[in-house]
């Protein structure tokens, strides 16, 4: 008799309940874009904004599921006529079929579909990749670090990864409930009965229960039965702190270059005491992010980019030939909403973030068209008159950049 391995249980789950649920017919009405693996982010954080899309680009989407990252990336590369390919890999054939149907609905021909485990990558004749997406997968492996090492084994020396892992503090309440459900709805029960029992338990939780007190855990509401199963009945699931992530990346020969959205990982976001904020802000990236996560307490998922390259891979605004690019936003509409004195506001899962923008913000934003460099924006504004000296303009641009990049609206690229 063969004993089922932890991976068999995980595969069985995603064969029965591909996640997240997606209907290929929706491709006709929208492209789902997200983080990580948006092509503008990959370029900005891993290739200093200098990717040349005329050159072949190979990406792997490991644990591609129903296809959100795979479809987004394949579509964005196709839109740029990039002669590259996206390799999709997953252990679940049901998930693969959904992603294949989505690709067909879009007429995408740059995806190579494979079924298999990412743990086998080191021995697969699959070649090396410039970029690897692995979103919501490694935390479902019995040994996530082995998964990370397997991914790193097929990454080009200058390549990078975009990863999403569950965050320990923001998932407070999940694990005690998973424990309760191991008694109430064990794996031996039929899937529908496990789901029914979970819904029953949630309905009757006491008001003091940590899961009930965490209003930001909502996959069981927004993701239907597949979301509920993924959140509370998963057979293999653990969460990570920022230091765990730094250590795991380092053990695979990788270096974390950014956590997204950046503003969530800056201690000063949550700390109004200037002395504490200044002390924490001077820490190196991973320690600073760890400080922010402990302060905030609400980071449910960690999205990060990591590289193998030994040089700085993040695009920086100091170079005046940088081209600011807005993500899925209309510059004129954004500019109209940024009237002087009106702060930029974001709700960071319950934390109300406000940032005062520089006086020139609306005028600068109105010039961002994804083609003009910072220097060209200055020239274009100069033609309208009433512009300050370059130094003052640049200081205001940088201030605006830090804030809009912080909430992931603004990225940089360079002409190649
Ligand atoms: C929560 S889903 C995430 C899917 C997708 N990455 C996304 O973010 O939408 C996890 C996926 O990882 C796949 N998976 C789990 N273990 C795997 C392994 N060892 N190798 C490849 N895929 C795996 C599952 O089949 C499932 O489709």
Structure in words:
- It is globular and about 75 Å long.
- The chain has three domains: 6-167 and 240-307, Rossmann fold (3-Layer(aba) Sandwich); 170-233, no CATH class; 323-413, Orthogonal Bundle (Arc Repressor Mutant, subunit A).
- The protein is an alpha/beta fold.
- Strand 4 (129-135), helix 5 and strand 5 (155-166) form a beta-alpha-beta unit.
- It is built from 17 helices and eleven strands.
- The structure holds S-adenosylmethionine.
- S-adenosylmethionine binds at residues 7, 10, 14, 19-20, 63-65, 68-69, 89-92, 95, 117-119, 135-137, 140-141, 230.
Q: What is the CA-CA span between the terminal residues?
A: 59 Å
Approximate helicity band: 40-55%
Low-confidence stretches: none
* CATH architectural designation of the largest domain: 3-Layer(aba) Sandwich
What does the overall shape look like?
Answer: globular
| CATH third-tier fold name of the largest domain | Rossmann fold
Major beta-sheet overview: 7 strands, mixed
- Approximately how much beta-strand content do the residues carry? 15-25%
Structural class: alpha/beta
Radius of gyration: 22 Å
Spell the H/E element sequence: HHEHEHEEHEHHHHHEHHHEEHEEHHHE
Helix count equals 17
Give the strand order of the largest sheet, numbering strands 1, 2, ... along the chain.
3-2-1-4-5-7-6
CATH superfamily descriptor of the largest domain: Vaccinia Virus protein VP39
| Beta-strand segment tally | 11
CATH class label of the largest domain: Alpha Beta
Q: How many individual domains?
A: 3
- Give the overall average pLDDT: 95
Bound molecules: S-adenosylmethionine
